[in-house]
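Dear colleagues,

As part of the handover before I leave the project, I'm documenting each prediction I ran so the next person doesn't have to rerun anything. This entry is a single chain, and its sequence is reproduced below.
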Amino acid sequence: MNFLKNILKQSGKLFEEGKPLSWAYPVWEATDTILFSTDKQTSSGPHVRDNMDIKRVMFSVVIALIPCYLFGAYNIGYLNALATDVSRSLIDNFIFGMSYVLPVLIVTFVSGAICELSFAIIRKHEVNEGFLVTCALIPLTMPPDVPLWQVFIGTAFGIIIGKEIFGGVGTNIFNPALTARAFMYFAFPTKMSGDKIWAVGPDGYTGATALAIPANPTEYDTASNLLNQSTQFDFSLWNMFWGLIPGSIGETNKLIILIGAAFLIYIGIASWRTMLASVIGLVFTASIFNLLSGYSTNAMLTITPLEHLLIGSFLFGVVFMATEPVTSAHTEKGKWIYGFMIGVLTVLIRSINPAYPEGVMLAILIMNMFGPLIDYYVVQSNINMRIARNA
């Protein structure tokens, strides 16, 4: 490793200011910091006042996402085998699923790297490791059969519009991965929404996701009954917890997501307050809607709090996106308000607008806008209380 480090150190002189390759310094710097630790301090947010630098934070999040990829690949193969009545081993299902997952992952990183390096070279700043997490998150929010050219465009939109136009990592308002997902949802709705978008095989067999079933019922019934009546897949609570149902690549297995949450909380990267407050907000709102369901024919109002937790990408979004350090609230009290409102808005969007049954994406993006405002009023409230106390 010292041999490689010396080579990088010597070659770095060619990229210094005034040298022929100075324009490509961000590329050299990114290679150096990815392979070896750096003693440099960040010049802009987010700041980590710890012995763990930003690079380690980003890689820790990526590590927490790896089990989601592994299970997502297996689940694609498992559901394909189930739908086509084919017998496969666990390894064969995993390999089959990886044939869907890897192309999406590769295209995402190619698109993200092009955008990130281009802006680093143009603006003459270092490459921010934040794009690693963004590019690791985007594929997990996609259906497995999403066209790759759409992934390329969506990733570029998320990084450029969601981050770079605001000045890069630390200054962006919206979560870039969710910005990419939102753009793709509204730009390519036939591939990202509806009740038949989840393909599980090359023969074109498709299946509805759990949220699409109560959102598009053939006749009115409770959400639980509609899910139990489905003949495509087993939408029992137990099965939804283990993730053996159609959905985006990384959202289905709730146990893996909870393990990821515990890992991020343990190493001090994600806020447990934001996560818990989001769950409280969801349970509170869903409980109220359950009480009101008798006055409406909207099956989405009958989804119980537990079903809301297990259906769709709520837990995935709350654990890996709502807690993102740049776009979330930063004050301790602000995190409670911010998370609670994410839970409330998720249920509102899911229930009131059946055309868009998955509400957590928009809920987080909306609260990204209000995060700084929440922090401002929390700080002002603390200032006013201190002034009143000393008066």
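The chain is about 60% helix and 0% strand. The chain has a mean pLDDT of 82.

All the best with the project,
I.
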